[in-house]
Amino acid sequence: AVGGTSLLVTYADLVVIKLTQDYGSGPVSRMLTLSIPISFILWSAIDPSSLVPLIKTPIAGVGIVLSLGLAIYFLMTLKSCTTSLIVIKRLIPIVIFGYAPVDVLNKTAMLHAPVLLGPLYYVLFQSLGVFILLSAYLVIKKRPIISDWYPIIHNTNIKRNAKLMVCMICFFIATMFGKNLGMRFTPNPAYVVIMIKFSPLWIVLMNKKLGYVDNTDIKSGIGLVFAAASIVLFNHLAQ
């Protein structure tokens, strides 16, 4: 599972990075929330027993169905935006065959791993796998690995940036450890993913503060985010 997710994450991240460079972080981050309903549907097909609480609580079940329908509505609305449509076409295969399967494999691995050591080993070995694959990619593309992986050496304040890099790595490990641990106890991986998919809201606020003009359909994109988030809300009603 770890090896599979490393390969999928590496490819998916490369595509996302390229799309972000070409079209901006706003539309890309909003489209990535599609992984939430797709992960929900995929895991429900693998483990139908996870739907039992929803069946016993009709309001929650109907709410989730409506949330999925609302997500489809906003997705169709976004197709009227040229930039969003381009991003959608590029990201849907990445979400369906990349990020959503990664979430399912993550939960599967956590169900068969030690409670505390499992999440830690998972993030460490997955990160190592991604590092190796990305390094191989840079070698194949004949790009300078040192300048790509260690940009802080080009900055005069190396000590300060090195400390910042260490803090970022520690924060990443802690965040991913929490995500992996949550995968073990949540009935559906989509419920964990939504907690780390609110970046579109922060990006919108940051763009406004920096004066960056985003001409894409922000309202429909944020609507898609909230439609995906409502899946978690209705799940809580069933617990």
- Average the pLDDT over all residues and give the rounded result: 83
Distance between the termini: 29 Å
Number of strands: 0
**Total helical elements:** 12
The stretches of 5 or more residues where confidence is low (pLDDT under 50) are: none
| Principal-axis shape | globular
Summarize the biggest pleated sheet.
Answer: none
Q: How much β-strand is present in the residues?
A: under 5%
Question: In sequence order, what are the helices and strands, one letter per element?
Answer: HHHHHHHHHHHH
Radius of gyration: 19 Å
Helix content: over 70%
Structure overview:
It contains 12 helices and no strands. Helix 2 (25-31) packs parallel to helix 12. It has 239 residues and is mainly α. It has helices spanning 2-23, 25-31, 35-46, 52-56, 58-78, 82-111, 117-140, 145-149, 158-185, 189-193, 199-210, 218-238. The model has no long low-confidence stretch (mean pLDDT 83). The two termini are 29 Å apart. The radius of gyration is 19 Å and the shape is globular.
What keywords describe this structure?
239 residues; mainly alpha
What's the short version?
The chain has twelve helices and no strands. With 239 residues, it is mainly α.
Helices and strands in order:
Layout: H1 2-23, H2 25-31, H3 35-46, H4 52-56, H5 58-78, H6 82-111, H7 117-140, H8 145-149, H9 158-185, H10 189-193, H11 199-210, H12 218-238
